Amino acid sequence: MDIDIVKDVDQPLGYNESEKDASATCVAEESAYQYPALFTSKTLLELCSSSWSRSQKAQDDIQPYLRGCKWSPDGTCCLSVVNNDGVHLTELPRDLYSNSPAPNRTIDILDSIVHIKEAGLVYDYCWYPGMNSNLPESCCWITTKQNSPIQMWDAFDGSLRCTYRGFNAVDEMEPALSVTFSQEGSRIIAGYKKVIRTFDVDRPGRDFAEHKLGSPATCFATDSNLLAVGSWNSTINLYNVNEMGTYKSIGKMHGHSGGVTHMKFTPDGIRLVSGARKDHRLLIWDIRYYRRPLNILTRAVNTNQRVYFDISPCGKYLITGGTDGVLKVWDVDQVDWKNSLETNEENSDDATYKFALHNDCCNSISIHPLRPILATGSGQFHFRDPMTGLEGADVSLQSNGMAIDNITNEVDTDENDLRYSCEAENSLVFWWIGDIVTEENVLTANVDS
Question: What is the CATH number of domain 35-448?
Fold first, then answer.
């Protein structure tokens, strides 16, 4: 099964010498684009929201909480994964494509324009890096889930385009633990328990190149020809990838106390930020001197769940969520998180801004690629309290003739442990993090003009 992916949008068929000047002008206009300032008003404005709740007939272990959200490369829509409910695609309202929203703007309720019901657990997902809504053939993403191959989905109608299947030594198909595209979008890099497999995007099926690993590849970060591979054994391997897809090891980084779950390069490609499960630290690495972390930032991560963070396209802000529902922001102009830190400052909390956005775990963070808009997702699996046998507010029982409130009061429980909390919040929210235009601002602008 063949698929059509646009390889080079800048030089289409029929490109000739007479079009060079026009092309150079377009490139100059694109390079002149300046990313808008963020957090200038030191407040967040809620724009849109969507939520998921468990059906009354569903079993206790069926909890539809968010497990990640990612803006499309062109910024027109947001892709989110919901536990036990598959993949949802939501569009950005058209009025947010330009200008700043008014403070009294009505909050939109987001509806999924595409919903792919996935039966298994979705391990990882990734947009095609050249995605452009004006080119339907480029609008797609890939997912990898439990007991399934890598699947490519169409972003317009949610249809399955093709699959990429990895087989082990005994010819058994095995699912990938993590997936990503190469930066130019010509290859799919998939991490398995003991190998990395590279697929050609134009050749779906079971044709792949293989590179052996000593530990599972649980997450990736790419920049140019660099590939960082995180593992459950708390290490990060750094590779140089040539044009043929061959991996050359550069070094290994140690520092996390749990399995690495998310990583991202800064826009300059010099530094790498990494986070891990049950590890309250975000480690900043300088890949030129990777023997020890360059800087250490703190956040709340009390579970094995993947808690995402993001770096603004301008490279100035680092934003992360946490299991306490608090959004933390580091501004490089106020907190120089890109430079070295003394070891005795490891436990200090020097975040520039803090926003208590959610009552539940804030596990998903994604910054819009063009506009000052932030997408956040909340939710986690809520266990039954082993002391009371109750889970959240969904259980309305009485035990031995005693009211639930009395049982809860008699048992000394940790109120800060959101895993047993009745405050379950499974939502996707868009926030405005740029300048907020008020009537005073408009009047001032008119007078000045």
Answer: 2.130.10.10
